[in-house]
Structure formats: C-alpha cells, structure tokens
Design brief:
Blueprint: E1 18-21, H1 23-38, H2 42-61, E2 67-72, E3 75-81, E4 87-94, E5 100-108
Parallel strand pairs: 1-5
Antiparallel strand pairs: 2-3, 3-4, 4-5
C-alpha cells in the first residue's frame, strides 16, 4: 500500500509550514513561567510547555485552525485557544515563500490583550 506524501510513519499529516516563535512570544512564555514558578505551580508549567509544543505542531499542519482576529496587509492574524490550559496564542500566517506561521504572543485567557504587531 502506498503512503501519501502528506503522512509520516505515524499516520499523522506532515507539517506544511514552518513555525517560528517571535521574540515577543518567547518573552511572554518566560513571563508566564516566572509567574507560575513564583506560585510553585510546576505541574502547570509542564502542562503549558506541552500545550505550546502541541499547538506549534498542529499549526504547522493546519495553519488556519485559529480564529482570524485581524489583518495587516496580506497577513492574517489569528488566535488559537489552547485546549488544556487557559492560554491564547496569537499568530500570523506569513505569505512569503516558504510559507510560515509566526507565533506572536501568548496570553492568559483572562488577560487583556492588544492586537499583536506583526
């Protein structure tokens, strides 16, 4: 039986876009981890890290999964609510070649959040 080019040996579709974490995203993650460490919430840190990794994998394969929250020129800005932790990732679909997903910011679901800058 021939295997589709879009599938790996695991039966999962292969990522079609590269996922890049912007500096602002990495700074947000560091701030959230620092807050959780101060609260001695080590299990929540592990859960957050696992969810970010899963979201990056999913967005590489299904980049339009999140809800569109804005547009800057030809760039769509979207938001993805993480499933197991109360956080929202904002990201952009970069139109350049090769196409990529840029992780812009991460916020707690109850945190006020501005529209991200691309």
């Amino acid at each position: 039986m021939r295997r589709s080019r879009t599938q790996t040996g695991t039966g999962r579709p292969e990522p079609v876009r590269r996922v890049i974490a912007r500096e602002s995203f990495r700074a947000d993650v560091a701030a959230q981890i620092a807050f959780l460490l101060a609260q001695e919430e080590r299990e929540r840190i592990a859960n957050l890290a696992a969810e970010i990794e899963a979201a990056a994998r999913i967005l590489g394969t299904f980049p339009e999964l999140g809800r569109q929250i804005g547009r800057e020129g030809s760039t769509n800005i979207r938001a993805l609510h993480l499933r197991r932790v109360p956080f929202v990732i904002t990201y952009a679909l970069a139109p350049e070649r090769p196409p990529s997903v840029m992780l812009l910011r991460i916020f707690h679901a109850r945190q006020r959040r501005p529209l991200p800058e691309r």
